[in-house]
Structure formats: structure tokens, C-alpha cells
């Protein structure tokens, strides 16, 4: 159809109409063109030229309705496929929640924030169900490159839902259902010295948490962002290394002495007696024994394992500063000077340097001595 078409004078008006009805302003030009093409094919049905505008508007409404239907179905398919990929746990009850229009739109917005090649790879893999090899052939790259792009794309998509889009009501449904994702870092674990410490900032629960997936799959350290003592330490701190450093420095300053006496409650400031704890459900694990404070006034609780206490000692921190490859050795029980003790130690194999932190095996778990060498 060329510009000599009698209806071409209606084009600008149809573009504006389609931008309103189509729900996707960027597609308005195409929808208007499709309207005019249909009108050209059906021109013999227009018996009264004075009704041309109304007739074209009716065609445009049908075209836009079909476009909205196709787009909604495509978004639902993309959303279901990519959500399952992001959760990596197969079908999930969240898929049902995502039937709500606002969640479909939220995921569409999140996808639109990804780089074009990443978005296309995700859609090709989880909507078109292409293999990484097939996607690589389409994109002119390697299958390994595509696989890495998919992994990073899933991670970035979830981070978008938790960060940039977190203020959206629909995003709250997402994080409320799954919680914040654990994010890998390049930081070394202070116990096993393996790189890959994971951290997460769960804004819904107001927590910053750390763990080592190798030696401590449960949460190893946690700070409450609403705690008046701990929260300010992490305010505006995003870099994982800075988070770990601040948490370690606070632990070293708070858990001093031999584990007895009082400390100030981190929430209300009242004096609280320190006591030992034993976790029967973790018998044999290096975190099964430790120290705790329970505030009777505000119900705030703080805990640290004996391994954490050993790491907080000045001698251990100096060893790890000199020898980053120093690792924890198995906790052992010995008898010294006729007294049963528990030894939490760290060693650097290359230099043979080490630190042993000695605790009583009794119910008080008192710190007895720190031995270097």
C-alpha cells in the first residue's frame, strides 16, 4: 500500500489510537500499518465513505486486541520459563502467583533491564527451548559462552527483582516467597580458607548474613540491620569484603575476655550476663558449642561459636594476616595439667605456624589460654 491510498490521511490518527489501545506504544506504527492493510483487503465492505473513520477505528480496535492477547501469552510463557530457571528448583508455587498482571509486567520490566544478548539467550533457552549449542549457532559464539551467559543472566535477573525493583509491590511477593538469594564472593572462608564465601542482604527480614557453602552451609554470621549497635556499622556498606571486615572487627571487640561477666545488650544497652550454649542438634560440628547473651529486657540474643571466639583473638587475626592460607584444624579434646580442655586451632602448612585457643570442656566453656607456635 502506498501513500496514494485514500486512507493514508488517517495514518497519524491511527498511530495515536493504537498507541493507546495496544498497550505498547513502540508497536503503534506497526499496528496502524496492519490496520490499513486489513482495510485495503476489505475495502469492498465500506459502502459509505463518510463512515471511513469509524470503520478504520473498529478495525484498529480488533488489531490492538489481538496484539494484546498475543503479547500477554508470550509474557506468560517467558515468565513461567524464566522464573523456573531463576529458582532452579523446577515448578514452584510462585508460578501461580505470577498469573497476576502486575507480576507479569514486573518480570517483563526486569528482562528489559538485562543486556540484549543476555535477554535473548534466556528467552531462547527457556521459552524457545533451544540448547546452548543451538543458541551458540544462532549467535555466532561458543556453547560455553552461552552457558555462562545463561548462568549470569539468571543471577542478574534475580538480583534485579531483589534490588532495583525491590520497591515494587510485586517484587515483595517474590522475595517474600523465596527470601533473598545467596550471592557468591571471592572472599576466603576464615575456617577452611576456600574462596567462595556467600552473603545476602535480606531487606524483607532486615538481615545481612554470611556463610561458607563448604564448611558451614547454615548461616555462619548474621547482623540485624534494625539493631542500633550493628545496623549503623553496615549502613551504606555493599562491598562483601567491607561487610566481612566490619562484622569481624565488631565480633573481636564485643566477645572479649574468657566468656564470663556481663556485656551491654546490643539493642537496649542493659547489662547482660554471658553464658555458654550447647547445640545438641549439631553434635560434633565445630559450631555446636559457643557463647551467648540473652537480654531479659528486650529479648535480643547474640551468639558466637567457639570457633568464632578463636578467630576473634588477636593472635589468630595476626596469623591470618601473615598467612592467608592458614586453615582450621579439627577440634580436639586433650588433657593438660590434669584438666580436660577443648582445642580450637589454626595452622599454615607452608610455614608450620599456628595458634591454639584453649577452652574448658565444662558447661561454662571458658577461654583458658591462647598458645602460638
Provide a descriptive summary of the structure in words.
The chain is α+β, with helices and mostly antiparallel strands. Among the domains are: 6-70, no CATH class; 93-178, Winged helix-like DNA-binding domain superfamily/Winged helix DNA-binding domain (Arc Repressor Mutant, subunit A); 183-250, no CATH class. The chain contains 13 helices and 13 strands. The protein has helices spanning 11-21, 28-41, 52-87, 94-97, 101-112, 116-126, 132-139, 143-162, 169-178, 231-234, 240-254, 306-312, 314-322; strands at 183-184, 198-202, 207-212, 216-224, 262-264, 271-278, 289-294, 301-305, 327-328, 332-336, 339-347, 354-360, 367-372. The strands form 3 sheets. Strands 9, 10, 11, 12 and 13 form a 5-stranded antiparallel β-sheet that branches. A hairpin with a 2-residue loop joins strand 10 and strand 11 (339-347). Helix 1 (11-21) crosses helix 2 and helix 1 (11-21) runs parallel beside helix 3 (52-87). The longest helix has 36 residues, at 52-87. The model is unreliable at 89-100 (pLDDT under 50).
Record the SSE blueprint.
Blueprint: H1 11-21, H2 28-41, H3 52-87, H4 94-97, H5 101-112, H6 116-126, H7 132-139, H8 143-162, H9 169-178, E1 183-184, E2 198-202, E3 207-212, E4 216-224, H10 231-234, H11 240-254, E5 262-264, E6 271-278, E7 289-294, E8 301-305, H12 306-312, H13 314-322, E9 327-328, E10 332-336, E11 339-347, E12 354-360, E13 367-372
Antiparallel strand pairs: 1-2, 2-3, 3-4, 5-6, 6-7, 7-8, 9-11, 10-11, 11-12, 12-13
Helix pairs in contact: 1-2, 1-3, 2-3, 3-5, 6-8, 7-8, 11-12
Amino acid at each position: 500500500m502506498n501513500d496514494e491510498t485514500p486512507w493514508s490521511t488517517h495514518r497519524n490518527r491511527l498511530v495515536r489510537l493504537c498507541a493507546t489501545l495496544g498497550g505498547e506504544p513502540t508497536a503503534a506504527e506497526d499496528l496502524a500499518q496492519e490496520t490499513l492493510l486489513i482495510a485495503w483487503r476489505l475495502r469492498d465492505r465500506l459502502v459509505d465513505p463518510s463512515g471511513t473513520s469509524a470503520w478504520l477505528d473498529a478495525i484498529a480496535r480488533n488489531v490492538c486486541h489481538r496484539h494484546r492477547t498475543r503479547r500477554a501469552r508470550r509474557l506468560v510463557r517467558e515468565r513461567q520459563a524464566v522464573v523456573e530457571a531463576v529458582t532452579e528448583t523446577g515448578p514452584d508455587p510462585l508460578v501461580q502467583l505470577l498469573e497476576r498482571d502486575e507480576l507479569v509486567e514486573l518480570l517483563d520490566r526486569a528482562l528489559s533491564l538485562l543486556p540484549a544478548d543476555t535477554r535473548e539467550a534466556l528467552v531462547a533457552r527457556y521459552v524457545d527451548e533451544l540448547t546452548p549449542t543451538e543458541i551458540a549457532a544462532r549467535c555466532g559464539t561458543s556453547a560455553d559462552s552461552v552457558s555462562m551467559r545463561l548462568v549470569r543472566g539468571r543471577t542478574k535477573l534475580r538480583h534485579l527483582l531483589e534490588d532495583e525493583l525491590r520497591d515494587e509491590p510485586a517484587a515483595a511477593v517474590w522475595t517474600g516467597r523465596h527470601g533473598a538469594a545467596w550471592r557468591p564472593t571471592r572472599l576466603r572462608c576464615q575456617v577452611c580458607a576456600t574462596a567462595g564465601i556467600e552473603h545476602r542482604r535480606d531487606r524483607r527480614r532486615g538481615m545481612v548474613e554470611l556463610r561458607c557453602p563448604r564448611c558451614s552451609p547454615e548461616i555462619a554470621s548474621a547482623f540485624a540491620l534494625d539493631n542500633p549497635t550493628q545496623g549503623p556499622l553496615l549502613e551504606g556498606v555493599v562491598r562483601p569484603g567491607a561487610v566481612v571486615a566490619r562484622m569481624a572487627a565488631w565480633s573481636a571487640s564485643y566477645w572479649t575476655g574468657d566468656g564470663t561477666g556481663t556485656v551491654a545488650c546490643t539493642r537496649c544497652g542493659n547489662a547482660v550476663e554471658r553464658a555458654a550454649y550447647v547445640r545438641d542438634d549439631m553434635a560434633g560440628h565445630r559450631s555446636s558449642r559457643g557463647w551467648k547473651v540473652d537480654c531479659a529486657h528486650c529479648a535480643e540474643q547474640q551468639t558466637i561459636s567457639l570457633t568464632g571466639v578463636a578467630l576473634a583473638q588477636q593472635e589468630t587475626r595476626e596469623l591470618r594476616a601473615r598467612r592467608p592460607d592458614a586453615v582450621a584444624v579439627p577440634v580436639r579434646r586433650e588433657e593438660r595439667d590434669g584438666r580436660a580442655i577443648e582445642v580450637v586451632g589454626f595452622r599454615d602448612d607452608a610455614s608450620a605456624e599456628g595458634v591454639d585457643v584453649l577452652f574448658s570442656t565444662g558447661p561454662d566453656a571458658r577461654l583458658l589460654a591462647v598458645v602460638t607456635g
